[in-house]
Amino acid sequence: MSKHALTIAIIGRPNVGKSTLFNRLVGRRLALVDDTPGVTRDRRAGIGRLADLTFHIVDTAGLEEGDSESLAGRMRLQTESALNGATMVLFMVDARSGITPMDRHFASWLRVQKIPVVLVANKAEGTRGMEGAYEAYSLGFGDPVALSAEHAEGLGDLYESITETARILGVDPRAEIEEEKPDEDETLDGPQEGDLDYDFEDPEEEPEFTDDRPLRLAVVGRPNAGKSTLINHLVGEERLITGPEAGLTRDSISVDWDYDDIPVRLFDTAGLRRRARVQEKLEKLSVADTLRAVRFAEVVVLMVDADRGVDKQDIKIASLVVNEGRALVIALNKWDTVDDRLSAQRAVNDVLTRSLPQLKGVTTVPISALTGQGTDRIMPSVLAAYELWNSRIRTAEFNRWLSAVTEAHPPPAVQGRATRMRYGAQIKSRPPTFTIFTNHPRGVPDSYMRYLENEMRRDFSLAGVPLRLYLRASKNPYVDGRKTKKQRLTERNNRR
Question: The EngA-type G domain covers which part of the protein (predicted)?
Answer without folding.
Answer: 6-170, 215-390
